[in-house]
Amino acid sequence: MAPLPYYLALGAVLFAIGVAGVVIRRDIIVILMSIELMLNAVNLTFIAFARFLGSMDGQVIVFFVMTVAAAEAVVGLAIIISAFRHRQTLDPRNMQLLKW
Amino acid sequence: MILFLILAVLSIVFSLLVVFRRNVVHNAMALAATLFLVSILFITLDAPMVGALQVLVYAGAIMVLFLFVIMLLNPAALEPRPAAWSTVGSLASLALLWEMVALFFYRPPFAAPPPVAGNFGGPEALAQSLFTNFVLPFEIASVLLLVAIIGAVALGKKAS
Amino acid sequence: MIIDVGIIAAKAFLVLFMVLNLAGILGWIERKGSALIQDRIGANRASIFGFAGMGLVNTLVADPIKFLFKEDFIPAKGDKLLHTLAPCLALFPALVTFAVIPFGDVLILGDRVINLQVANLNIGILYTFAMASLGVYGIVIGAWASNNKFSLLGGVRGAAQMISYEIAMGLSIMGVLMFYGTLELQEMVRAQGELLWGWLPAWGFFLQPLAFLLFFTAAVAETKRIPFDIPEGESEIVAGYHVEYSGGKFLMFFAGEFAEIVTAAGLVATLFFGGWQVPWLMPDGFHFPWGGTLLLSNLSVTLLQVGAFAFKVIFFCWLQILVRWSLPRFRYDQVMRLGWKMLLPVALINVVVTAVWIILRQGLSSNP
User: What is the span of the domain harbouring residue C295?
Assistant: First the structure.
């Protein structure tokens, strides 16, 4: 098992890649996927700390993060589907205004 | 250690593919691969139960949902990629990365991982913690899932 | 250290060898068995030097050669990378799931105790479900990469069906898990060696017959065999999600489907029918309930156990083939209704009733 900073660095790299995805991409589904990537980076950090501190709490928190991420992905995709039906595009710049 | 390096490099490569490929289905598959690799990392970190749940829930169900939605919406055109915005975005996340990695390495060396019980991270340990210490969040999570299901069905229905 | 790795590699090789060979032989059993059921002769033309072997040469030699030499094309607007990746994604989960299924107790060679199971994970059955949930990718990606409306239709239907029946599969074995108290498959099979009321082996089938029916139905639906054949709909949407595949890629889909049959049979045998348990066979020999004993060496006990496991797996493979050639195909809405409105509530009720039964039994036995 690698020393702890390596796992934290990997989590940081994945998180930064996710942030880059949210900032750069113009397709709202890919933005949602980058958010999932960020959540996974956080999960990795939690699990690494859970192992290196010898406590199960980190894994339980990851369990809940996964549940919440599942719920959020489901609702987010439903919103995207109904927004797509109106605007026929997945560009988030067209979804900035509450009323058009 | 070698295993960690291989997994780390592969997961970074796949997550870069997630962000920088143009084809949305490729992005989704790369994300599924990243999630699978991260779950293998979980298993090496003595969290087999959470690793299995990650494959079951995340890579097995959520990503399939993403693929379903992508196929349903069928985004045909590839989006424009203005160069200035991409550069600024990449530089910003690189700066974020530099800060975080610097924080992690300029510290006194962490101690070795403490020896843990044999079934650490196993289903019994996770269930023990989940159903005694975290029972209230567990119930709230189940209500949250119910609300999400109802909300998704309500949002996804065509307006009649 | 090297010997340990070598033993694990040998077990993995042995399991993979047996699964793939059984998948091939199942192809032969399917063709000849269906011919028997339908009162026709079946394939028997290909022969080597006049030896046709009841169609064995045709299925096991001529067909693979034909598949491997066919032209391998990718549809014009199809996605090249995904089209090639999909059969691999379909075959991979079908093969690796067998890693946790135990095919024997322990084999004692000298002073080395070998557990006859490729990987003894403490999450056992969850690993199987995780790999089964990865099986959806092969369908979805295969359908998408073909750039074909029929293919997409079959793929989306197939994915929806697989996801729905995964839930029913997982819930139906909760009762079994509660009774044996463990997720590890080797421990579960060992627990099935105990005797109920002194003479009946505690197999899952006797403890949870309803769960067996639910699980068997859900497993057949997962493997997309008739009667849950909608994704492949041979008479409706040509060949569903693998219509644009030919040659080696189709062979991978095909082999993946048969490997899934073997895996489903292996799971049913392990969870509900005692896996490698022979009734009344203890690690040192037979102990009959009427008092007789027959002591056997460890090697013969192990051979009996592996033989029993093989027999059970082959029996359930044959049962699935029999079901396939006897029943008509369900309509898609019937499939969905069965999964969500019939299997799921019954599985939940099964879990609740089992839980109540276990608590009552514990309460009665611990009452002073």
Answer: 75-365
Number of residues written out for chain C: 368
Interface TM-score (ipTM) > 0.85 = yes
Is C123 close to B60, i.e. CB distance below 8 A? no
Whether the Cβ atoms of residue C114 and residue C183 lie closer than 8 Å to each other: no
Which H helix or E strand runs over B90? helix B83-105
| Cβ-contact A43, A14 below 8 angstroms | no
- Answer yes or no: is B157 within a domain: yes
DSSP helix/strand/coil, C286? strand
Q: Which domain holds residue A45?
A: 4-95
> B53: which chain A residues are within 8 Å (Cβ-Cβ)?
63, 66
Please indicate, yes or no, if residue B82 is contained in any of the structural domains. no
The predicted structure's pLDDT at residue B155: 86
Please say whether the beta carbons of C84 and C90 come within 8 A: no
Q: Is residue A34 part of a domain?
A: yes
Percent of chain B residues topping a pLDDT of 90: 34
SS3 content of chain C, % helix, strand, coil (to 5): 65, 5, 30
Task: List C108's β-bridge partners, or say none.
Answer: C113
A 67-96 near B (Cβ less than 8 A): 67-75, 77-82, 84-85, 90-91
pLDDT in the model for residue B39: 93
> Whole-model pTM?
0.90
Q: Looking at the domain assignment, is residue B139 inside a domain?
A: yes
Residue type, C183: L
Residue A15: CATH number of its domain: 1.10.287.3510
Question: Which CATH number is B33's domain given?
Answer: 1.20.120.1200
**What does the buried/exposed string (b/e) look like for C40-79 if buried means 16 or more CB atoms within 10 Å of the residue's CB?**
eebbbebeeeeeeeebbbbbbebbbeebeeeeeebbeebb
Q: Which residue on chain A is closest to B52 by alpha carbon?
A: A63
Residue C23 included in any domain: no
C129/B53 Cβ within 8 A = no
Q: Is C53 left (phi over 0), alpha (psi -120 to 50) or beta?
A: left
As a whole number, mean pLDDT of residues C344-359 equals: 93
Reported as a pLDDT band with limits 50, 70 and 90, residue B110 is: low
Question: Per residue, what are the HEC states of C170-237?
Answer: HHHCHHHHHHHCCCCHHHHHHHCCCEECCCEECCHHHHCHHHHHHHHHHHHHHCCCCCCCCCCCCCCC
Encode pLDDT of A65-97 as tens digits.
999 999 999 999 998 888 888 777 777 777 777
Exposed / middle / buried, residue B96 (Cβ in 10 Å: 0-12, 13-18, 19+): middle
Query: Is A100 within a domain?
Result: no
